Structures are given as C-alpha cells and as structure tokens.
Amino acid sequence: MSRTIFCTFLQKEAEGQDFQLYPGDIGKRIYNEISKEAWSQWLHKQTMLINEKKLSMMNPADRKLLEQEMVNFLFEGKDVHIEGYTPPEQQ
C-alpha cells in the first residue's frame, strides 16, 4: 500500500517512502517530507559525489559530508556541485 505525502523537494503530492531509509531525525524528515522520486534524484547525486570525491562509507568524515550534502539538496534547495560535471542542459 503506497502512501502519499506532500514532497517538500518537488513541492507537490507524491508517493512517499515505504519505510524510513535513514536513521534519526533526518530520517524521520525524509520519511515524512521526501518522495520516492526526490529520493532517487538524491541517490543519483550521491553516487556521483561518492565516485568523484572517492568517499568511503567506512569513514565517519565522509559519511558526515554526504549527510550534509543530502540535507542541503533535499531540504535547503542547494544543488550538489560536482567538479567537472556539467548538467546536460548547460552544455
């Protein structure tokens, strides 16, 4: 059974997550405010960030950096800046 939430990222009603994907208060916010569509956009950015910056999920500092980028992207309206990456619409 899918649930509909108001996605603060997309600014519209959208399909919500099936369960909390991230721990703690940030995870609760994501569950309540971020749709599946918005989350998949973040996962795409996260993969690019991990690859470009060679981040390790075993490294607490790398995890903290990713978490900050995630909060900025999902809740602060800040796009993730990837060195050497130009979005197709800007080429």
TrEMBL record:
One GO BP on record is: cellular response to oxidative stress
Q: How does it assemble?
A: Monomer.
The root-end lineage is: Bacteria, Pseudomonadati, Pseudomonadota, Gammaproteobacteria, Enterobacterales
Q: Decide whether keyword Hydrolase is in the record.
A: no
GO cellular component assignments: cytosol
Is the keyword Iron assigned to this protein? Answer: yes
Q: What is this protein called?
A: Probable Fe(2+)-trafficking protein
- Report the sequence similarity comment from the record: Belongs to the Fe(2+)-trafficking protein family.
UniProt KW keywords: Iron
Question: Which is an annotated Pfam family here?
Answer: Iron_traffic
Q: Which Gene3D superfamilies match?
A: Fe(II) trafficking protein YggX
Question: What role is this protein assigned?
Answer: Could be a mediator in iron transactions between iron acquisition and iron-requiring processes, such as synthesis and/or repair of Fe-S clusters in biosynthetic enzymes. Necessary to maintain high levels of aconitase under oxidative stress.
**Molecular function terms from GO:** iron ion binding
